[in-house]
Amino acid sequence: MDKNQHKGVRRQRRHLRVRKSVTGTGERPRLAVYKSVRHIHAQIIDDLAGRTIVAASSVESATGAEKPGNSKSAAAVGKLLAERAKQKGIGAVCFDRGGFKFHGRVKALADAAREAGLKF
């Protein structure tokens, strides 16, 4: 197994370990983050109903980010996600970092979502 495959396996294990305790409900859904090398995606999910309520991604042109793979674009995604969540009446979420370390783009997304009004 090469280094990159091994990193992916470790991230999957971390993610499963976190998901044992983090569950989204109707009152407090789960904010799930996924990042690839180039883009970052975030969803607000109600696990009990099994549906995605709100989603945002750096792939969308609505974020306004000209370069998708950096912290500024991640912050734009977090702000956009929080605005969409407020339109749907969601004020509080539980954060699921997806097995990624809480720094860099993941932290930028979380901080921007908090500044835009989401509580977690």
Question: What secondary-structure arrangement, pairings included, does this model have?
Answer:
Blueprint: H1 3-19, E1 30-35, E2 40-46, E3 51-57, H2 71-87, E4 94-96, H3 105-115
Verbal overview:
The chain has helices spanning 3-19, 71-87, 105-115; strands at residues 30-35, 40-46, 51-57, 94-96. The protein is α+β, with helices and mostly antiparallel strands and 120 residues long. The chain has one domain: Nucleotidyltransferase, domain 5, CATH 3.30.420.100. A 4-stranded mixed beta sheet has the order 3-2-1-4. Helix 2 (71-87) packs parallel to helix 3 (105-115). The model has no long low-confidence stretch (mean pLDDT 93).
Q: Which key features would you list for this structure?
A:
120 residues, four-stranded mixed sheet, Nucleotidyltransferase, domain 5, alpha+beta, globular
Briefly say what this structure is.
The protein is an alpha+beta fold and 120 residues long.
Which ranges are low-confidence, i.e. pLDDT below 50, for 5 or more consecutive residues? Answer: none
CATH topology: Nucleotidyltransferase, domain 5
Query: Would you tell me the overall average pLDDT?
Result: 93
Radius of gyration: 14 Å
Q: What is the number of helices?
A: 3
Shape: globular
* Pattern of helices and strands: HEEEHEH
